[in-house]
Amino acid sequence: MNHPLAGVISDGMSLSIKGKLKKLRWSPSCYGWVPRFIKEYTGEGKNITLEEGIAKITGFPSRRLGLKRRGLIKNGYKADITILSFTDFNDKSNFFEPGIYPDGVEYVTINGKIVVESGQSTRELAGKVLKNKYE
Fold first, then answer.
1. What's the rounded Cα separation, in Å, for the pair 106 and 86?
2. Which end of the chain is more exposed for a tag (fewer CB within 10 A), N or C?
3. Residues with Cβ < 8 Å from 115, sequence gap 6 or more?
C-alpha cells in the first residue's frame, strides 16, 4: 500500500437500485469500498496518510487510466469533488442490501454541478460516459 506505484480502484459497478437493474445482486464493495479503504488504511498509526489515501483513489487512477483533467483539484480540471465528514464516513452496505450509500458524504460535485447537497441527492445528472480518448 505504501509503494508510490500502488493505486486503489474498484472493479465493482455502482448501479442504481431503482429501475430495471434493481433486481440485480452485486457486492457491497460497489458502494462501500471507499469508506472501508479510508478507515482501514489511512490516518494516524496506519499504513498511509489520509492525503496519500485520497491520492491513491483519485489522482493516481485518473493518470493511470489516461483520464484528462480529472482526479485532482486544479485550475482547468473538471470539478469532481466530494466533501465528507471523516468521523461519520462509514460503509453501511452489506450482501443483503448492497446499494446503500455510505454515511458522512455531505457534498458531491460532478463536472462542477452539485449532485449531493447536505447529504441528499439533488437529482442533478451531471456525469457522462468517458469513451475513446477518456475526456
1. 10
2. C
3. 108, 109, 121, 122, 124, 125, 126, 127
Confidence of residue 93 (pLDDT cuts 50, 70, 90): confident
Residues in the chain: 135
Q: Can you tell me the distance from the alpha carbon of 35 to that of 14, in angstroms, rounded to the nearest whole number?
A: 14
E runs forming strands in the chain: 81-84, 105-110, 113-117, 120-121
What pTM, to 2 d.p., does this model score?
A: 0.80
What are the structural domain ranges in the chain?
Answer: 24-121
What number of H helices and E strands is found in the chain?
Answer: 3, 4
C-alpha cell at 60: 493516481
